[in-house]
Specification:
The complex is a heterodimer of chains A (about 290) and B (about 325).
Chain A (H helix, E strand, L loop, with lengths): L2 H32 L6 H19 L3 H28 L3 H23 L14 E4 L2 E4 H23 L1 H11 L1 H6 L4 H22 L11 H15 L4 H22 L1 H18 L9
Antiparallel strand pairs in A: 1-2
Chain B lengths: L10 H12 L6 H26 L7 H19 L3 H24 L7 H17 L11 E2 L14 H24 L1 H11 L1 H6 L4 H27 L1 E2 L1 H4 L2 H14 L6 H20 L6 H16 L3 H24 L1
Antiparallel strand pairs in B: 1-2
Classes of the chains: A mainly alpha (about 290), B mainly alpha (about 325).
Chain lengths: ~290, ~325
């Protein structure tokens, strides 16, 4: 095993890690403002990917051009969904909320199966099958663009949360919802906006990384699980923790796949999660 | 005043139950398979409800227990010729140990709400990946049970016998769940569900009772796993160990009413036959349509009655009795 191969796998892991971190961050955003554990998170991303595919098949629209469109569509979808479905259910408790999202999993997965069939689908884009050679590395363009975009979005999200009024309101709600409401923050609206942005980010990310994946109706669950693992490993509701954990899990998964094969690679994120829970149950960056 | 003993609302379900007992005498073989599947799901939902409903801990790891039961009894029977009638208890013991360990792992510290769901879903996935890659367990192909066809090996010629066996499972599980619900254990578990800190403050050993609920639920689920394996005569990761089956169990229980005794009975009883009918009549042209309908029903029920059909019925009944009471007072 040469050093170059290891380096190649590490870089690829870093790139996947950036994408994982973004998916986990949008889940963290939704979780921290409303306490909603969104088991349908990855399915929204799968929905966005299939949306990009449908746009390509109908209008020959490239996935990268579809991404901004899908962002606004999903922002709206998230906002409406929160106002009319999630918010009333959350009033009955976070448990009911989590169960609701399990229902959404079944709806989305089987809707995709009904509409597009169970076959594996690849969506061609302008960047498909092109590589960037930076000796000694070879990087597929779709992954490079997807990961850079994920990193940029993560940075933007961080700045928005830390520096804008909306961000301060989100953080206030995260810390103490009742006190935030007493300070005049319109909790319901901020929650709906945060949910919309969380889902909107998936609408944007899905088409941007669609060239890197093969589409199947059940793919959403894998994204959900990775996002959950990253979120817990980093410390539930901890933004910095999610970023660090995303990279750690991306790299270790990639290296383990290279050294021990795909099955071990797929198991590594779960094993990391278990170790974290055993020895640092509040997450790598979590506070007691 | 009318006598209102706590068991009064249970009369209706018992009548339905009687019909269920007599049903296979009038059923064709297609319907009896659906009936067996329905009873199996009732059984699994009742088992899940002990930890997921009565104790209020949202566990998504029950595929592990189902697989522990199915694979243990099957391996013992194929490798060592041990009858599944004994093997099922070995499976249940294994599942209990796993369940108690998971509960201990998750509940030692006070973690944010719902982290239990995260831990269990991750472990279930890990189990699925492990089972699908271990050759001794048949990897992704699974294991086939040799056809011996003797009742001593938990195999029957007639589906009616399978029906009776799973019906006995259901009766035992419902009786256990009713008993649990109304004794001290159930009271403690419900106290933990409703307000964990308050329960802890008045001296409920919270961790121990969560572990107990998980152990009972795991053991029951494993017994169901052995039955399912014997009925299908094979075990295979996708059917027994994937998260899909747990989501289905949760969904059916929630539609019926989580945390009630009869909710996990009512949910599958209504939905599984309807789903199977949909699958048989439309599944060829519209794959997944029955699961789509399950999902939509869950969303509708949870939107308008988060406590499920049993909870909604209970509220309607109380409202009716209240109105009648008002009328009686007015006429006096």
């Amino acid at each position: 095993m040469s050093g170059e191969v290891l380096l190649q796998a590490t870089v690829q892991g870093l790139q996947m890690g950036a994408i994982y971190a973004l998916i986990a961050l949008s889940m963290t955003l939704i979780f921290s403002v409303g306490g909603l554990l969104n088991f349908a998170h990855g399915d929204f991303m799968a929905l966005a990917m299939y949306g990009a595919m449908a746009l390509y098949q109908a209008f020959r629209m490239d996935a990268y051009a579809a991404a901004p469109l899908m962002f606004f569509l999903f922002l709206l979808l998230g906002f409406v969904l929160f106002r009319h479905l999630v918010q009333p259910v959350l009033a009955a408790g976070v448990l009911a909320g989590a169960q609701l999202t399990l229902g959404l999993v079944f709806i989305q997965e089987n809707l995709l199966l009904l509409l597009f069939g169970g076959d594996y689908i690849n969506v061609p884009t302008v960047l498909s099958n092109r590589n960037l050679g930076v000796p000694p590395l070879v990087m597929p363009w779709p992954l490079l663009v997807g990961s850079v975009l994920a990193a940029v979005l993560t940075a933007v999200l961080y700045v928005v949360l830390m520096r804008t009024d909306f961000g301060r309101q989100v953080r206030a709600i995260t810390q103490n919802r009742d006190a935030a409401a007493l300070m005049g923050i319109r909790v319901g609206r901020i929650q709906a906006l945060a949910f919309g942005i969380g889902i909107g980010l998936l609408g944007l990310t899905g088409p941007m990384i669609v060239a890197q994946f093969t589409l199947t109706p059940a793919m959403g669950l894998d994204f959900t699980l990775i996002a959950l693992i990253v979120m817990v490993t980093g410390g539930l509701g901890n933004f910095t923790g999610s970023m660090v954990a995303g990279v750690i899990i991306g790299v270790s998964e990639s290296l383990a796949s290279l050294l021990y094969g795909g099955t071990v690679g797929a198991m590594i994120p779960y094993a990391i999660l278990l170790l974290v829970l055993l020895f640092r149950p509040h997450g790598l960056m979590g506070e007691h | 005043m009318r006598d209102t003993s706590p068991l009064a609302p249970a009369v209706g379900p018992w009548l339905i139950f009687l019909a269920v007992v007599l049903a296979p005498l009038a059923m064709s073989s297609g319907w009896i398979n659906i009936a067996i599947l329905t009873l199996l799901f009732i059984y699994l939902c009742v088992a899940w409800n002990i930890v997921g409903g009565i104790a209020g801990q949202f566990c998504i790891g029950h595929s592990l227990f189902l697989a522990a039961g199915a694979y243990t009894s099957t391996l013992l029977s194929t490798q060592f010729g041990i009858t599944p009638w004994l093997g099922m208890f070995a499976g249940a013991a294994l599942a209990t140990v796993i369940g108690i360990f998971i509960a201990w792992l998750s509940f030692r510290y006070e973690l944010p709400p719902l982290s239990f769901a995260l831990v269990t879903i991750a472990l279930a996935m890990l189990g699925y990946l492990a089972i699908s890659s271990i050759d001794l367990l048949g990897a992704s192909r699974g294991l086939t049970l040799p056809v011996r066809g003797t009742p001593a090996m938990y195999q029957f010629r007639s589906d009616v016998t399978y029906y009776v066996v799973i019906l006995l499972h259901v009766v035992a599980a419902v009786a256990l769940s009713m008993w649990l619900y109304h004794t001290k254990i159930g009271l403690y578990l419900r106290a933990v569900r409703d307000n964990e800190r308050a329960a802890h403050a008045i001296g409920v050993p919270v961790l121990r009772y969560k572990m107990l609920a998980m152990g009972i639920s795991a053991a029951l689920t494993a017994l169901g796993g052995t039955f399912y394996a014997q009925y299908l005569q094979y075990v295979e990761p996708h059917t027994f160990a994937s998260i899909n089956i747990v989501i289905q169990i949760v969904l059916l229980t929630v539609v019926g009413g989580t945390g009630t005794v009869w909710g996990p009975v009512v949910g599958p009883m209504l939905l599984v036959p309807a789903g199977e009918w949909l699958r048989h009549s439309l599944g060829g042209s519209l794959p997944g349509v029955h699961l789509l309908v399950y999902g939509m029903l869950l969303v509708i029920v949870i939107r308008f009655a988060p406590d499920g059909l049993v909870g909604a019925l209970e509220r309607a009944r109380q409202a009716w009795r209240f109105r009648r009471g008002v009328k009686e007072v007015a006429t006096q």
